[in-house]
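Entry: Diaminopimelate decarboxylase
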Amino acid sequence: MNHTTQEGINNAHLWPLTTVVDMHGRLMIGGCNVATLARQYGTPLYLFDEETIRSACRTWRTALAACYRGETAVHYASKALLNTALTHLIADEGLGLDVVSGGELYVALRAGFPPQRIHMHGNAKTRAELEQALASGIGQIIVDNLDELAMLANLTAYRSPPQPIALRIAPDIVTNTHAHIQTGHATSKFGLPLDALDAAAERLRTAPGLCLIGLHAHLGSQLFDLEPYAAEIDTLLDSASRLRDRHGFIIQQINIGGGAGVPYTADQHPFDVHALAMRLGEALTDECRRRGFPLLHLVIEPGRSIIARAGVALYTIIATKNLPHMRFLHIDGGMGDNIRPALYGARYSAVLAERANAPIEESVAITGRYCESGDVLIHAAPLPRASVGDILAVPVAGAYTLSMASTYNLTPRPAVVMVNGGSVRLIQRRETYEDMIARDVVSSQGQV
Ligand SMILES: Cc1ncc(COP(=O)(O)O)c(C=O)c1O
């Protein structure tokens, strides 16, 4: 590509690493013309840039390894997004995988992800899911509560070698993020209250099929402040000391969960992964030394920060509505593929894919196609004058969008493509109307 004929995109930190704007103002990602892909594959279309995903995986792995002398592992939190192609990529980059359901585990195993590198989370794992995990040879089950511990102890009563587990604690740390994505406070539904640790240890004493190797906590999502992580390490090490001193359990691994923040709009700054790794390395080294532990293994579980920036959602403007002080652009997607704005007021920005850096002319509401007044993707998007048929590109759309997608209004879920080095591959086809009746059962009595 001739570099004199292209320029960087405004607010480049919100876009995939390979994003440029060509001499005609067209958005190019992974060497591909985004609007052309939208017309070829149809919209809504979710586009992922392979280089951005791989780069995020490498940044996390190298930063942790560089900043902590003990063993480190990065597990991708697959709740942010999971499909077969992505599973292959995560495996290829040497990360582990976190799953929170039998479905996520199934996809990972079907894609050939090594079970020993998978951890299973969840506050309400069913017996069937625990059995599925145990049968798969999963690396670790992160136990969330005493009932789960009792069930798991029963399921593994005659198991040899024992199943490695970690205990998730609620560390009683409040973070500066939206209440819906806050998980480390004392009244969170997730994790053992700190005062239940002794009861867990007692139960484990008579659970020969389980081997406690780690402690886990997760503070929440969209965190930009590093200090809560240091407080979390303090609490986790305090709990590890208690388990050692009172009950004789030797903890080998500390898992601090995920949560690293991602900028969604121009006013938000990128998160410094290296600074977090430094702070974690420093805090864990100090706490291990202070409490007489060897350097414990450090595990981190980023989801959003691996996949959010790599994903761009593409929509077609289907219709407009003009009021005296307001203009709506109705798009062919919305809360069905991205529930975040409706769920917790998440903010996004957008550009026109064929006039990517063009001067702003108006502020418009980007309204979804679903039958809910709350289906507004962006309340006030500064854009050049847009019209029906234009392709709208929304950056930072990779995390917690498709993984939360629904077929509300019986609208098929989008297709997904991966771009890299000028080529594109379809990694998930668009849902069809046939897919939507595939589960319907018509009894012979009801047949017409
Ligand atoms: C246990 C656990 N680990 C990791 C994550 C990933 O968080 P994030 O995507 O914010 O990095 C989550 C998200 O909810 C989680 O619950």
